């Protein structure tokens, strides 16, 4: 994803240790908690779900998720939780050190207040001691460029390497010293959604490190469903779909035993999933 990325698993573990050492809270295991807001469509749900299959998230990190469809859903969430904890001050209140927005900004009005409201809410959960650890990541196919990604080092827009190079070329061009012209070029460059950027699951999928073959099979299946959702709504071409579904099919062939995924040649390359243990199958979100 270039240099604008989610933290690596190694840095997550490092930060977790540092925070644990700083913590003076008693009788609680101090966890590196992550909160995910995702838009309520198939691709965002799939993208959120495959993050849970990363081996480090399954072992060491608590992940909390919340689906939204409009800005009011976010405000309602903030008010509800503030109300609960203001009336019950003895409740253990979770802290969050990374907040991820999946597909939110392309579907909800992305005025500055959304970013400010989210940052304010999660900043208020932390004491000043821990504020330096708080980071926000935006994973979105419409590339909601906003000044906040340049002016606030807490916010990161997840890009692939090619896009990152494009941005740095624009940013380093001496002719673009005028701030308004600079931002205008960014907006022009990312206003149109490129076909290869539409499926968020495919953006995240290559970087999920799975603990075992069953998890690897699961994320191939989930990514295939996500990709198919764009084909069914005619947002991608058949050529692009066929290319990407073949890539996923080839990845499945690298799973040594190959007994978790099966393909029916008469129905195309969309995989069918089977597990030996029912518990494993139940880990797939029922919405998917």
TrEMBL record:
Q: Could you identify this protein by its name?
A: Uncharacterized protein
